[in-house]
Amino acid sequence: MFQPDEIIFAPTGRCNLTCAHCRVRRGPDELSSSDAIAFLDSCEAGGIQRVGFSGGEPFLRPDFLVALSGATMERGLYFDRLMTNGDWWSDETGLRSTLDSVRDAGFDGMIGLSYDAYHGQSPKRAAVFLATVFDVWGRKDVVELLSVRSPDDSDFLRGLDAVAAALGGRLERGDDGEPVRILDDTYAERTEADPDDGSGLVIPVIRSPRSSSVAEGVWESPRWFRDDFCEGPGNVFYVHPDGSVAVCCGFANESPQLIVGSISDSWDVLMANAAGSEHVRARYETGLGTLRERMEASGIRFPGKTADICFFCDYLCTTGLPPETIEK
Known about the structure:
CATH superfamily of the largest domain: Aldolase class I
Shape: globular
CATH topology of the largest domain: TIM Barrel
Number of helices: 10
CATH architecture of the largest domain: Alpha-Beta Barrel
């Protein structure tokens, strides 16, 4: 059942990078902080508990981050993740000043660093960004590194080793050679009885496959996706820079089928629109796995299989939901 507990604000579609795997629609739209705060107030009584930021590159709108962080703190809500490519700054003085302003506004959530071969960031600049984040927040456990796998990650992985070394840590890998986390000896030697004071360096590395577009038509998985009723992307309201509100943070969330209104609509209106949407019910109530089985039972044949639930969601936004598979 769709019951959002978080709002993710994307204040701008602008970005300083142009990444091959990015699915964000770029444009001149900029989200108003006053409209966003009014929307936050409208949703608070409905059960919203957390606020996150995405984009575009949200640090290109530090005014928005400061205003919404302050509003979130004043309302006693929690922060989730602030996504960034960590490469938006021109000099270290400006980097520190911007980070200081966001911290002073009260943001104490996680910094989600998008860092992979597609982004092409300099390991040296990534290390400077991370070291400054740690210094500004006074902790070394406030970052998660989110990384999309590419066909050849060798240069990226060498760069990640260099980032770890520059931070005084090392890259820990799993049995399959995949990076798991960056940590230092202070964190590695800590026991459960030790205080969690943030002095130990630890950066979880969260790896994911690249999600293909419907146009790319990738149906080559040996198995189907696991149905999670879209809890992976999250039970969220995602507010785009143009003020439209989607029901998830997956890459199909700019599709009209997943838009339930705008930032000017009330919580009640958005929830009523979501409840009346066949596409929303298919994802949060029926389940895309169940829907796929119904489609196959009705005679529909797919080109292959996909383990990527977001790809299948995007596919359904493009092709539509067969009437015979929808529960009335």
